[in-house]
Every structure is written in C-alpha cells, then in structure tokens.
Design a protein that fits this description.
This protein is about 80% helix and about 0% strand. It is built from 7 helices and no strands. The longest helix is centred in the middle third of the chain and has 33 residues.
Length: about 160
C-alpha cells in the first residue's frame, strides 16, 4: 500500500516523498533523539513496562516476529500520513516549520486510541506521539531515509 501511495502521489500530484534531501544537522538529529527518548520514557510510565517485553508474553517467536514486521509496515504508512499531512498543511496554510503532519497524526491517533481503549491517557499519549513523530520528520529534513528509522524505533519500542 505504501508503494502504491508513493507512486500515485508522484504520478498524479508531483509529490515525491522519497526525495533525497540530505542528512539533518547535528543539532536537529539531537533534537529528534530527545523526542524519541521522551516518547520512550512516557511509554514506559504509561504501560508500566517496556512494550516489547509486555507484548512478548504468551507469544511464540514466530508471532512476535510477525508482529514486529507488521509494525515496520505500519511505520511506513504512518510516515506517509505525516508526510502527506505536512504537504497538505504547507499548501493550505504555509508555515513549513509547523508540524502539520504530526498534528494530523496526533489528532487521528489520539481520538482513535481514546475511543478504542477507553482511556484519555492512551489517547493523550497517542496524540503526543503523533506530534513528536511529525516534529521528528521535520527535524530529519523530510528525508525518509533518516525519518523512517527514527520513527520506527519509538513505534516498536514505545
């Protein structure tokens, strides 16, 4: 699905989310790592444990691996939500420094986690996570070669 969306965006809208922009500055990379660390700490506090350990309980090795392969695919779609949301926000309102894609991810994740898990804490964590991921995407200069691994780590570990 991610490959289809990338190809269609390129073909029909002249949007290339896979464009190579270049590495982020050291300061931006440090800022993004701080965001990831904050998400990790908050995730530990909310879940009362480390996500991979909690999710491994009762699973076979194959189930655990399959779940994490799924997470890697899901990160690709989340990254596209952030990238396309960023592009849409910039086209509509300008201000490329605002994490429009992160706001979109945060609002959708926050609402759905609140409704499906019946918890404002889960919804708030999801909303903050979406905003953090969108901010990290901007700090990585919108270059998916750098943004994808940075987004994948907290997604899997937090």
């Amino acid at each position: 699905m991610a490959a289809y969306l990338v190809a269609r965006a390129r073909r029909e809208h002249d949007v290339d989310v896979l464009a190579k922009v270049g590495p982020p500055s050291g300061r931006a990379a440090l800022g993004a790592l701080v965001l990831v660390a904050a998400m990790f700490a908050l995730g530990l506090a909310i879940r009362d444990g480390w996500k991979p350990v909690l999710e491994a309980d009762g699973k076979t090795a194959a189930e655990f691996i399959a779940q994490h392969v799924y997470y890697l695919a899901e990160v690709a779609l989340v990254l596209l939500l952030v990238a396309f949301g960023q592009r849409a926000g910039e086209l509509r309102w300008g201000r490329p420094e605002v994490p429009w894609g992160g706001l979109l991810a945060g609002l959708t994740w926050g609402l759905m986690h609140t409704l499906t898990q019946g918890s404002l804490a889960a919804g708030g964590y999801a909303a903050l996570s979406g905003l953090a991921l969108g901010t990290a995407y901007l700090l990585m200069r919108k270059d998916v070669r750098f943004a994808y691994p940075l987004l994948a780590v907290p997604f899997i570990l937090c």
